[in-house]
Each structure stands twice: as structure tokens, then as C-alpha cells.
Amino acid sequence: MGQKTLDQERQAIQAMMLNVTRALDITDKNARLSFVKSTKGEIEKGRAYTSQQVSMIVSAQSAKHAIATQIAYAAGLRAHELYTLRPLERRKVEYRQEREETKNTLFNARNGMRYTVVGKGGLEREVLIPVHLVEKLESRRLAEPQQVKDRGVFYHSHYNIGGGNNWSSSFSAASKRTLFRSSGAHGVRHSYAQERMKELQRAGLSRSLAYKTVSHELGHLRESITEVYLR
After folding, report:
1. Buried b (16+ CB within 10 A) or exposed e, 63-77
2. pLDDT confidence band for 19 (50 / 70 / 90)
3. Are 141 and 159 in contact (CB under 8 A)?
4. 98 Cβ partners below 8 Å, 6+ apart?
5. Residue 146: helix, strand or coil by DSSP?
6. Beta carbons within 10 angstroms of residue 108's beta carbon
7. How far apart are CA 218 and CA 120, in angstroms?
């Protein structure tokens, strides 16, 4: 709980112990419960999940949502972007001028197949899906794209996988069942950012270039947003 709520709870218990149970001596001015600092703010700073935690969540989801969680975690996808997945050859991606610097560092140190998604502001970008997930994904390809409505927006999904609010809800519920807490499905993007930063720097990239590469891979319109994901 937050600091304000925690203080109110402490004061209520203290009043009961002073006036009802007499566990505290009302005549003693120093008879007070110790101050307790809330850790909620510290917890909220970091939303990332570990790979083990993601595996636990996946094990508690249906097959449709489980594959979506694995892909979102492996490729750093937003919830709605799962509905927009297409093989790279089916969609032309144009790099914005400010992204040219990281064009050749995308997906360094990773193997897989390139797909595309449509992110915020209609920004199309490449994402990399590991080989072991590509087979699972392609086994769920639809014969014809299916129209899906999510948060008032229509998408044409080409795969029978979870996405959008339905997947987010499934993720949070599974997280609470297995971990007894939830940082939200968006937490897997935080995981991706943190793991990729370490991976790229181990591969020899400077922090600056690794940072810009991660920002590009996440589809952030402003690079400064990425810093929040690295907490």
C-alpha cells in the first residue's frame, strides 16, 4: 500500500491500542507505534518480469494467450501489436531518418525470423521472433485474416493468438495466480528492454548505441521514454 494509506492504518491501530486494548500506555507520550516506510514506490519503479516468472505465467494461460505472452516477451511487443503481426515480406517498412543510425544494429546477437507490427502513431517496424516461436506462430496462421475489435479499434489479425485487452487481462490474472501480484502485461516490454541493453553491451555496442537500438526495437517515438523501461 502507499505511504498515506499505511500512515492511516498505523494511526488507527495506534488509537485502538491506546484507547481500547490499552496495549499502549495512554499517559506515556512516547508510547507510539514506530513509523513504517512504504515500499510501493520502489516496487512501481520496476515492472520487468524475469524469464522464470514469464514461464510461470505462460504455464497458467490458455494456449492462445500463452503463445502471445512468449512472443510479446521475446520481441518486446505492445498488447495491440500482437494483432498486427505479419511476415516481413508482406509489409514494406521505411526507416525514418533519425533511425538510420541503428538500422544495422537491430537484433544484433539474436537469431530468428523478422516480422512487422504496427505500433503507436501507425509506425510500422521490424521485430524479431526466435525460431522456436516462429514454428508455433505459423501453426496458428489463419486461412483468412480475422477482424478483431480492441479498445474501439479494428484490426485484421492473421494469427489465432491473443492480443489487446483480452490478452492483457489473461496475463494479469495468470500473474496473480502464480506470482500473487501483477505488474501488467506491459511489464514484458520492460523485461525486453533491460535484457536487450545487457545483451547488446555484451556484444560490444556502446551504451549510447545500445540504448538507441533498444528504443528503435521497441518502437518508441521518443528515445527518452526508453529510460523508464530500464529502471
Report:
1. ebbbbbbbbbbbbbb
2. confident
3. yes
4. none
5. strand
6. 16
7. 11
Average pLDDT over the chain, rounded to an integer: 89
Q: Are strands 113-118 and 153-159 parallel, antiparallel or unpaired?
A: unpaired
Residue with cell 494461460: 61
HSE toward the beta carbon, residue 33, CA cutoff 13 A: 17
Q: Give the cell for residue 194.
A: 533491460
Nearest-Å Rg of the Cα atoms of the chain is: 23
What 8-state DSSP symbol labels residue 57? Answer: H
Q: What residue ranges define each of the domains in the chain, with the CATH number in brackets? A: 50-229 (1.10.443.10)
Give the Cα separation of 62 and 57 in Å (integer). 10
Q: In the chain, how long is the greatest CA-to-CA distance?
A: 79
In angstroms, rounded to a whole number, what is the distance separating the alpha carbons of residues 38 and 44?
A: 11
pTM for the model: 0.79
Residue whose grid cell is 496473480:
176
